[in-house]
Design a protein that fits this description.
Order of helices and strands: HHHHHHHH
Distance between the termini: 30 Å
Number of domains: 1
Number of strands: 0
């Protein structure tokens, strides 16, 4: 009986902490633009550090869990998941391809506007496609604050910290593509999406195979969204800051 009561208290604490984490992630989207030093060229070392942390979380924490989750998916009796047998990494690849496509659409839109003598910003239609896609991405992260492969307060904070830095990086990239309209509308939509995802997560629950697939898609999205910010030569990103973030967070994850 005492064990049941203790577990109930722990679950309640995790629920409240996840709500606080969702609010903090939303605040990051609303106010990270105020951090002017992040917009510097060459690329801010803090952004490269945050990118390294995000990638380390994917490779050290998410991907090993996906390997274990593959066995769960293979043993699942759900017909809807049968086609993914042996192919959980296809979903991670899908996440990467989807966000690569979104980035290409945004860049081509900016290039067309520049050639037409217009400001270096995406068109209205591309803006809404981009924001709608990232709203789903953010809602997924909000949902996974409550439904992760590995439960517990430690797992929650490791996930939160990696996603917090990842959001700062994403926010910077989205602002570069969409300029003023992102500050006026986009950041508020993405902040709200996190809360919506958490609320949906608090009211619903899905089984382990489905959680694994969501994490797989997220992993692919994170890797692409990080690399698209770090690799372009004109960004003049800092390799050592990226390596420090990746190595430091990987070491922490392995130690825990």
């Amino acid at each position: 009986m005492f064990a049941v009561a203790e577990q109930s208290v722990l679950n309640s604490n995790i629920f409240l902490l996840s709500a606080l984490c969702a609010i903090c992630l939303a605040i990051i989207h609303m106010f990270s633009g105020k951090l002017r030093f992040l917009r510097a060229t060459p690329r801010s070392r803090w952004l490269s550090f945050g990118s390294g942390v995000s990638v380390a979380y994917v490779f050290i924490h998410i991907l090993p869990e996906l390997s274990e989750a593959q066995e769960t998916i293979e043993s699942s009796q759900e017909i809807g998941l049968a086609f993914l047998e042996h192919h959980v990494y296809l979903v991670a690849l899908l996440g990467m391809v989807v966000f690569y496509g979104l980035e290409r659409v945004a860049r081509e839109s900016r290039q067309r506007n520049q050639k037409a003598g217009k400001p270096d910003v995406t068109s209205s239609g591309v803006f809404w496609i981009h924001i709608a896609s990232f709203a789903i991405y953010n809602a997924l992260i909000g949902y996974l604050l409550l439904h992760r492969e590995e439960q517990g307060i430690q797992s929650l904070f490791l996930f939160f910290f990696a996603m917090a830095l990842h959001f700062v990086v994403n926010d910077n990239g989205l602002r570069e593509n969409h300029k003023a309209i992102y500050d006026h509308i986009g950041r508020w939509v993405l902040a709200a999406a996190i809360i919506v995802g958490w609320v949906v997560g608090s009211a619903t629950a899905i089984d382990s195979p489905a959680v694994a697939l969501l994490f797989a898609f997220l992993a692919g999205g994170i890797v692409l969204n990080v690399l698209k910010e770090e690799l372009p030569e004109e960004r003049e990103s800092c390799f050592w800051a990226f390596a420090l973030g990746a190595g430091g967070y990987a070491s922490l994850l392995l130690a825990l």
